[in-house]
Amino acid sequence: GCVFNWTPPKRRAVDSYLSRMRLNEVVKELGVDRALVDRVGHHPNDGLLELQRYQSLDGADALAVMIDERVSPLLAEGQRQPFIEALFELSQNAPEHSGREGAYFAAQIYQPGTRSARVKFAIGDAGIGIRTSLEGTPFECDDDRAAIEAAMEQRVSRLGRNRGYGLAYTLKTINRLSG
């Protein structure tokens, strides 16, 4: 075997995050027989939202509610509603357009609780991609970048007329907030 030395995190927020990421279970699978982090649960001010898997539009709804509860107290006045609207639009798009059931979300909030708070989040899936989604429509593109740019324009959607407003609205909202 090998010698294993562990230095516990100095900040409670880091300990909290490692606990939520189930570090103890992971290292146990590697043969470490003691807990490395305390079971501290959720630390409300750490600004980290661990990777979440969700499925379907109902899963996107539940994800938005959970994130609203976790993120809203950390955002400055006037940031909550635009953030939730953007999150909801983007999280719905993944299962709706990807051709796959599951999608993933993770986020970090920088300078929480201040007027300069910034939220960086990622939503991803292992689906067909925007370019493939637009194939066979009037919006077909030659490369992924052009497809992403097209999807940010109003009324660009493979789903037909009166669709394709969400991403354009989300982009406009984010730009209005200097995001």
Range of strand content: 5-15%
Gyration radius, rounded? 20 Å
Largest sheet: 3 strands, antiparallel
The run of helices and strands is HHEHHEEHHH
Strand order of the largest sheet: 1-2-3
Low-confidence stretches are: none
Query: What is the oligomeric state here?
Result: single chain
Morphology call: globular
| Cα-to-Cα separation, first versus last residue | 50 Å
Structural class: alpha+beta
Percentage of helical residues?
A: 40-55%
Mean pLDDT comes to 79
What is the tally of beta strands? 3
Total of DSSP H or I helical runs spanning 4+ residues: 7
Textual characterization of the structure:
- The structure is a single chain.
- With 179 residues, the protein is an alpha+beta fold.
- Helices cover 41% and strands 13% of the residues.
- It has a three-stranded antiparallel sheet, covered by helices on one side.
- Strand 2 (102-110) and strand 3 (118-124) form a beta hairpin.
- Helix 3 packs antiparallel against helix 4 and helix 4 (80-97) packs antiparallel against helix 7.
- It starts with 11 loop residues before the first helix and ends with a helix.
